[in-house]
Specification:
This protein folds into two domains: 4-52 and 368-425, Urease, subunit C, domain 1; 55-357, Metal-dependent hydrolases (TIM Barrel, Alpha-Beta Barrel). It has 13 helices and 19 strands. Strand 2 and strand 3 form a beta hairpin. Helix 7 (206-223) packs parallel to helix 8 (235-246) and helix 8 (235-246) runs parallel beside helix 9. The chain has helices at residues 74-83, 102-112, 137-142, 158-171, 182-185, 194-199, 206-223, 235-246, 283-295, 310-313, 330-337, 342-349, 351-357, and strands at 4-15, 18-27, 32-36, 43-46, 51-54, 56-61, 86-91, 118-121, 147-148, 174-177, 190-191, 203-204, 227-229, 251-256, 300-302, 375-385, 404-414, 417-421, 424-425. Strands 1, 2, 3, 4, 5, 16, 17, 18 and 19 form a nine-stranded mixed beta sheet that branches. The protein has 427 residues and is of the alpha/beta class. The longest helix has 18 residues, at 206-223. It is globular. Bound molecules: (4S)-2,6-dioxohexahydropyrimidine-4-carboxylic acid. (4S)-2,6-dioxohexahydropyrimidine-4-carboxylic acid is lined by residues 62, 94, 151-152, 178, 276-277, 306, 321-323.
Length: 427
């Protein structure tokens, strides 16, 4: 018989079944043993004034290991994830070497085993993410990989993408696309528009993303493949996905926190912390992404957590690599900036991405007896100031430094263990 180890006391429970109050007792087998009023256990985790929800799930995390451990390791990225309320993250494959074989998949999963977050990995669609030859998708799928992407770049070759879709359908895996037509985007360092003209920085037009969204919707129709669009950033992309879903297509997409909070005007500082791919867009695009999150066109919030060393980000705008941190600010940004009910925000951070990744057996599920205790406890009203220096990531490239946010994670439980306790990462 599992023994109770701790009780989360005095919180408001929010999950896909609704909202209620109650204490949650967790057992030494990592499961939820009981949910109800006035429960006791040897250790008490205070959830007064807090929401208790299923842990968050990020479908888009760059962990940099193997290859760029000076920017992030699986361990440091997972610590940032725990601090942000995440209990499951999906590693992107643009490491060195790329995650494009069973050997590298095994290495990443092994490195993630002791991390304070459930680390899953995606696999590359093409060998070396070079866009020329299909990667051994079946071999990686055998190890449990369910999400394939060349993220960091899109698959340019239409014929190869069609083949990947046919192959993926047979294996019942999801193909995720970083939508960017290289021929259109090449040489652009920010969104092409009024601000790129004013600043004299080469731009990439919204159409560079939209052409690939359009192409892949057509290919998915042709092949019947289940596709997912990563980090959609333009009004046109959101409109195309909405129309495709209205027409009955089974496809999903994500939006990042930066694409619903920042615009291309930020680049006027010439600070490369605002350089990201796809680039920050216009206020109209931000409004469209917010509308897409509100009406269900966009299935989940992703971080696209992309750590880069200070040396890399201190280069001139057109030389610095794209990407920004996201794991530790996602909840605060969503609660502060989105005009959505709390339950909607938690759905977008937790059970929707959990279903999308197929990890709902362990993550994102209802807070009931018998489920795994992968949980997040956050104060939706606590105000705090983002401080790059106190982040758990090995890198510092947050575009939100100094920003006031409302909503902060207090505790995160991974398989019943508090890996974040009163704001301190403990593993
Ligand atoms: O801004 C980005 N950074 N976009 C990507 O697609 C890749 C990522 C990275 O790996 O740094």
């Amino acid at each position: 018989m599992p023994q109770p180890t701790l009780v989360i006391k005095g919180g408001r429970l929010v999950d896909a079944t609704g909202v209620r109050s109650g204490d949650v007792v967790v057992g030494d087998d990592g499961s939820i043993l009981a949910v109800g009023p006035d429960l006791d256990a040897p250790e008490v985790l205070d959830a007064g004034g807090c929401v208790v929800s299923p842990g968050f799930v990020d479908v888009h995390t760059h962990l940099r290991e193997p290859g760029k451990e000076e920017a992030e390791t699986i361990e440091t990225g997972a610590r940032g994830a725990a601090a942000g309320g995440y209990t499951c993250i999906l590693a992107m494959p643009n490491t060195t070497p790329a995650i494009d074989s069973a050997a590298v998949v095994r290495e990443v999963l092994e490195l993630g085993r002791s991390a304070p977050c459930d680390v899953r990995t995606s696999g590359a669609i093409t060998v070396g993410r070079a866009g020329e030859q299909l990667a051994p998708i079946a071999e990686m799928a055998k190890l449990g990989v369910r999400f394939f992407t060349d993220d960091g770049t899109g698959v340019q070759d239409t014929r190869l993408m069609r083949r990947a879709m046919e192959y993926a359908s047979a294996l019942d895996v999801v193909l995720a696309q970083h939508c960017e037509d290289d021929a259109m985007a090449g040489g652009g360092h920010m969104h092409e528009g009024e601000w790129s003209s004013r600043l004299g920085i080469a731009g990439q037009p919204a159409e560079a993303e939209e052409l690939m969204v359009m192409r892949d919707i057509a290919l998915a129709r042709l092949t019947g493949a289940r596709i997912h669009f990563q980090h959609l950033s333009t009004e046109g992309s959101v409109a195309m996905v909405r129309a495709a879903k209205d027409g009955g297509m089974d496809l999903t997409c994500e939006a990042t926190t930066h694409h619903f909070t920042l615009t291309d005007e930020c680049c006027a500082t010439y600070d490369a912390v605002f350089k990201v791919n796809p680039p920050l867009r216009t206020a109209d695009d931000v409004a469209a992404v917010r509308a897409g999150l509100a009406d269900g066109t966009i299935d989940c919030i992703a971080t696209d957590h992309a750590p880069h060393t200070p040396d890399a980000k201190e280069q001139p705008f057109d030389e610095a690599p794209p990407g920004m941190l996201g794991l530790e600010t996602a909840l605060g940004l969503a609660l502060t900036e989105l005009d959505l009910d709390l339950e909607e925000v938690v759905a977008l951070l937790s059970w929707r991405p959990a279903q999308l990744l197929g990890v709902e057996d362990r993550h994102g599920g209802p807070i009931i007896e018998g489920r795994r205790a992968n949980l997040c406890v956050f104060d939706p009203e606590e105000e705090w100031t983002v401080d790059a220096d106190t982040m758990h990531s090995r890198s510092r490239n947050t575009p939100y430094a100094g920003r006031r946010l409302r909503g902060r994670v207090r505790h995160t439980l991974l398989e019943g263990e508090p890996v974040l306790r009163s704001g301190e990462v403990t593993r």
